[in-house]
């Protein structure tokens, strides 16, 4: 009898200490019950983000403290299971996109404030919806920070990654010319969305000068490790350089550091979700891992070669392929 009750318990990713992948466990947890203003969502897909690796390894303790056991993950999409009193915007059965500031998204059930959900556009597939919030808000913020206009040329580093693949397209929509700094493997995707690829590595400064002889109007760094200083050396005004990761470099040259929290979350998330749903921009997926393969998902993410998102699938009924076709993108 006891055994049967255990088998029915929902599962969640939990960490019991800072450390490597070995600390990531899928454990049984009690099904949450919504209180006033809260919603319980049955999660269908949950995203992975590189910052979660740094948090798990304990490098960001000051910013993201944990009392163990602790959950993981910000992004999710799923179906509303139950709502607490006072929730009028959502009802059981609604399909939603959400985000967890408590890092509890990688779980079969998430308990969340109703203000941290938006309706999922019906035409947006679960996997893109479930890995959208962090990259969408960050891409909107990074592009907005450098105030692009038609006629500008902007260079974007990390152009085909989770944030970059959206940011390059949002930048293109301003009418700017966009140079995407990335490896050769990323070049076909970048060209397909109207972005001019340029390889990183030795000689990048010269390649940028040749590609933009009249200079760059703006520079967006989505990778870190010295690109902000390169932008300043190339003569880009500090107010039009934005990095989402190199805070020390930004301080040195006076660049901006607008990330996901610099823009209104619901509005930015909804605008990007709609743009993807209507086919105005594309969101590549690198891989969809079953929830039980969370270690493999983070091993792949840590390689920093993702082109788009690496997503966890929590609904086995969807039978998602591990590597979805990028063209249709609808597993
Ligand atoms: N401040 C914020 O609000 C915020 C929010 C989200 C993320 N972040 C941070 O922003 C960064 C980007 O996040 P993400 O999710 O987009 O990461 P990601 O998807 O893991 O980025 C992968 C990309 O990095 C590129 N890359 C690898 N080596 C590179 C190099 N030496 N130079 C330039 N690009 C290189 C790869 O391009 P190729 O495959 O073409 O080599 C790949 O497309 C992370 O450090 C993350 O922690 C900050």
Task: Please describe what this structure looks like.
The chain is α/β, with parallel strands linked by helices and 331 residues long. The chain folds into two domains: 166 residues, Alpha-Beta Complex (Quinone Oxidoreductase, Chain A, domain 1), CATH 3.90.180.10; 127 residues, Rossmann fold (3-Layer(aba) Sandwich). Helix content is 28%, strand content 22%. It has eleven helices and 14 strands. The strands form three sheets. Strands 3, 4, 5, 6, 7, 13 and 14 form a seven-stranded mixed beta sheet that branches. Strand 11, helix 8 and strand 12 form a beta-alpha-beta unit. It is globular, with a radius of gyration of 20 Å. The protein binds NADP nicotinamide-adenine-dinucleotide phosphate.
Give the secondary structure arrangement, pairings included:
Blueprint: H1 2-7, E1 11-15, E2 24-28, E3 38-47, H2 50-57, E4 75-83, E5 95-99, E6 109-113, E7 117-119, H3 126-130, H4 133-145, E8 153-157, H5 162-172, E9 177-181, H6 187-192, E10 196-198, H7 204-211, E11 218-221, H8 227-233, E12 241-243, H9 247-253, H10 265-277, E13 285-290, H11 294-302, E14 309-313
Helix pairs in contact: 4-5, 4-10, 8-9
The structure holds NADP nicotinamide-adenine-dinucleotide phosphate.
NADP nicotinamide-adenine-dinucleotide phosphate is lined by residues 49-51, 134-135, 138, 157-158, 160-164, 181-183, 185-186, 200, 222-224, 244-245, 259-260, 304-307.
Q: What is the gyration radius calculated from CA atoms?
A: 20 Å
Q: Provide the CATH superfamily of the largest domain.
A: Medium-chain alcohol dehydrogenases, catalytic domain
CATH topology of the largest domain: Quinone Oxidoreductase, Chain A, domain 1
Average pLDDT value?
94
Q: What gross morphology would you assign?
A: globular
Q: Write down the CATH class of the largest domain.
A: Alpha Beta
The total beta strand count reads: 14
The poorly predicted ranges are 327-331
Helix and strand element order: HEEEHEEEEHHEHEHEHEHEHHEHE
Largest sheet: 7 strands, mixed
Bound molecules: NADP nicotinamide-adenine-dinucleotide phosphate
Secondary-structure class: alpha/beta
